[in-house]
Amino acid sequence: MEANTMQAYDIVIVGGGPAGLAAAISARKSGTERILILERDGELGGILNQCIHNGFGLHTFKEELTGPEYADRFIEQVYALHIEYKLDTMVMDISEDKVVTAMNRTDGMFQIQAGAVILAMGCRERPRGALNIPGYRPAGIYSAGTAQRLVNIEGYMPGREVVILGSGDIGLIMARRMTLEGAQVKVVAELMPYSGGLKRNIVQCLDDFGIPLKLSHTVVDIEGKERVKAVTIAQVGKDRKPIPGTEERYTCDTLLLSTGLIPENELSGKCGIRLNPVTKGPFVNESMETNIPGVFACGNVLHVHDLVDYVSEEAGRAGEAAAKYVQNGCCEAEDTREPISLVATDGARYTVPSVIHPDRMEDLLTVRFRVGAVYKQAYVSVYFDEERVMHQKKKIMAPGEMEQIILQKKKLLEKPDLRTITIRIEED
Amino acid sequence: MQKRELTCIGCPMGCQITVELEGEEIRSVTGNNCQIGDRYARKEVIHPERIVTTTVVVTGGDKERCSVKTKGNIPKDRIFDCMAAINRVSIAAPVKIGDIVLKNVCGTGIDVVATRNIHKI
Fold first, then answer.
1. Is A362 an 8 Å CB contact of chain B?
2. Could you count the other beta carbons within 10 Å of the beta carbon of residue A16?
3. Size of interface A-B (CB pairs under 8 A)
4. Looking at A62-148, which runs of residues are DSSP E strands?
5. Contact (Cβ atoms closer than 8 angstroms) between residue A34 and residue A138
6. How much is the pTM?
7. For residue A316, pLDDT beyond 70
8. How many angstroms separate the CA atoms of B84 and B101, rounded?
C-alpha cells in the first residue's frame, strides 16, 4: 500500500458501541477535531440494539431506558457533533505506531495514521466449544446473545422448549424473553454455587415466571442427532465435577448458553498491548491508557461490565485522555514521581486501572474491581502500602456485581513515597 | 404481622428489602437505599407491576422488527394479555422513538411506544 493514500485522523476509535460512542463524544467535547469511529456492524450502537429490555441509564440519565433508547442518546450526539464514522468496516490491524488497517466493501483495504487509538471492540460470548460439554452436536444450541439477536432483531424464535446453561445476565434476560414469546423455559442450570447475573434479573426474569434456577448444576449430556431432543443436567460437587446419581433429563429443542463473556482483544494482542490474564483485557493506567502510549481502552474490551452506565463513564474518561494525548503528547517526562501499582488480593480479583500516575489523575478516581466469591457482611479494605486507609462494610458482594472504590488525588499527593495500593476483602 | 423479603428491581443494585404488613396494611419497609425501593416494595406486596418490552412487526422499513415497551408499569398478571395484544400489531416505517404503536394496551391505561428508530426504505 502506498504511503500517500494514507489518511490521518487525530483519534481513531475501534468500535461504535456504547464505549466507542461515549469515547468519541467526550474526545470531541475535549477539543479534538478529526475523530473517526470504525464499526463492524451496519449501524452504530453495538450490542445495545438487541438489548431491548429496560434498566439502562439510571445512573447516566436518571431514567430507565431500553438498550436502543440508551444508544440513541449517544448516537444523536455523535450526529450533532459531526463525528465521522464508517459502518460495515472491519479493522484488521493496529500497529505499534498507530497505523490502523481496515477494510469495507466501498473503500476496500485502507490505512489510517492515527494520533491516538481508542480500543472499544467489546466482548464476545464463550461458545460451546469452550465448555467441553459431552454429547452430539445437533442444531438448536445457541449462545444466549445469538438467540437474543434472532428474536429481537430478526424476529425468529430459535425454539419452543428451552434449557439454559449459565446464569449470566443475557441468559436470564433471554429466559424471560423466550417465555414472553410463548416458549417454555424449563430450567436454568448454573455451574457455580451463585448466579453470575444481577439479583434483580433473577427476580424479574426467573422468579416472575416460575423458572427454576439450579445452582451447582451443569449439562452432562445433549441428545439428538439433527436437532436437540433432550438435555441432561447433574449436580456438581465442590470440585465442579458432576455427582453420579443426580442426573435429571429435560426434553427440549433448544439449549442456550450464557456462560461468560470474553473481551475481544485479538487486535490488541497483535500490536503488543499487555493483557491482564484475569480480565482478558489490557492493563491500563488512570487515563485508561495501555502500555503503548496513545492507545487507550474502554468498555467491555477492557473488562466485562454489568452496567452500561459505567461503560459510558469510563469511555468518557478514555476519550478525554486521548484528546489530551493528541494535544499535549505523552506526559511521562512531566511525571514528578514513580507510578503507584494497584494490587487486588484476598478475594478481590483485579482492579481497573492497575497503575496510577498521581500527577495525571483527576481529583477523584474510580477504581473498579470484582470479587471472586460471594461475601456477606465482609469489608472492602484499602491499604496504602502497609497502612489500612479504608475499611468499608458491605452487606453482600458477589462475582456478578462489580464493586468500586474512589481514590482522592490529594490523599495520594500527601504520600510521596507511596508505591502500592492494595484492595483486599476482609471478613472481619 | 406478616414479613415479606423482596429483592428490589428498581435498579441494578438489587437491595434486599423487608416489608412488614398486617393484611394489606404496610407497617414498615426496611433495607432499601432509596425512594425507588420504598415505592417498589409497597407496590410489590399489594399489587405488583412490571414494564414489558418486546417487538412488533414493521413493514417497509430497514429492519424487520421494531422494539417497543409499555410506557409505564402494567399489572404483573396482565403481562401475557398485553403480549398477545402487542403481537397482533404491525406498524409501517418510518418509526421514531416514542411513537405510540398501541394505545391503552388491554385497558391498562398504558400506551406501548417504539424504543428505536426505523428508517423507511
1. no
2. 29
3. 79
4. 65-66, 84-86, 90-94, 99-104, 108-119, 123-125, 141-143
5. no
6. 0.93
7. yes
8. 14
Q: What number of helices (H) and strands (E) belong to chain A? A: 8, 27
**CB < 8 Å to B6, chain A:** 203
- Chain B positions contacting chain A at CB under 8 Å are 6-12, 14, 16, 50-55, 57, 63-65, 67, 69, 76, 79-80, 83, 97, 115-117
CB contact under 8 A, B12 and A58: yes
Task: Tell whether A199 is within 8 A of chain B (Cβ).
Answer: yes
Q: Which of A66, A198, A203 sits opposite B53 (nearest CB)?
A: A66
Q: How far apart are CA B8 and CA B16, in angstroms?
A: 6
Sheet with B2-7: list strands edge to edge: B2-7, B16-22, B25-30
DSSP, collapsed to helix, strand or coil, labels residue A65 as strand
Provide ipTM, 2 decimals: 0.92
Contacts of B83 in chain A (CB under 8 A): 180-181
Strands A261-263 vs A123-125: parallel, antiparallel or unpaired = antiparallel
Cα–Cα distance for residue pair B11/B3, rounded to 1 Å:
23
Q: In this structure, how many other beta carbons lie within 10 angstroms of the beta carbon of residue B99?
A: 17
pLDDT at position B104 is 97
Contact B115 A52 (CB under 8 A): yes
> What Cα–Cα distance (Å) separates residue A371 from each residue in A74, A282, A388, A400, A424?
31, 19, 19, 8, 9
Contact B58, B65 (CB under 8 A): yes
Closest in B14, B54, B115 to A198, CB measured: B14
Give the model confidence (pLDDT) of B88-102 as tens digits: 999 999 999 999 999
Residues A363-386: what's their mean pLDDT?
94
Q: Does the beta-carbon distance from B67 to A66 stay under 8 Å? A: yes
Mean pLDDT of B27-39: 91
With a pLDDT cut of 90, the percent of chain A lying above it is 84
User: Is A303 in contact with A10 (CB distance < 8 Å)?
Assistant: no
Contact B12 A307 (CB under 8 A): yes
- What is the DSSP-derived secondary structure letter of residue A245? T
For chain B, what percent of residues have pLDDT higher than 90?
79
In terms of CA atoms, which chain A residue is nearest residue B115? A69
* Residue A332 pLDDT level (bands cut at 50, 70, 90): low
Which of 40-79 (A) contact B at CB < 8 A? 49, 52-55, 58, 64-66, 68-69, 72
Q: Which position has the grid cell 428491581?
A: B9
How close, in Å, is residue B87 to chain A by CA atoms? 9
DSSP E strands in B31-121: the ranges are 49-50, 53-59, 65-70, 74-75, 90-92, 100-102, 112-114
Query: What distance in Å separates the CA atoms of residue A244 and residue A220, rounded to the nearest whole number?
Result: 10
- Please name the residue of chain B whose CA is at the shortest distance from the CA of residue A152: B55
Instruction: Check B14 against A58: CB less than 8 A apart.
Output: no
User: Is residue A132's pLDDT more than 90?
Assistant: no
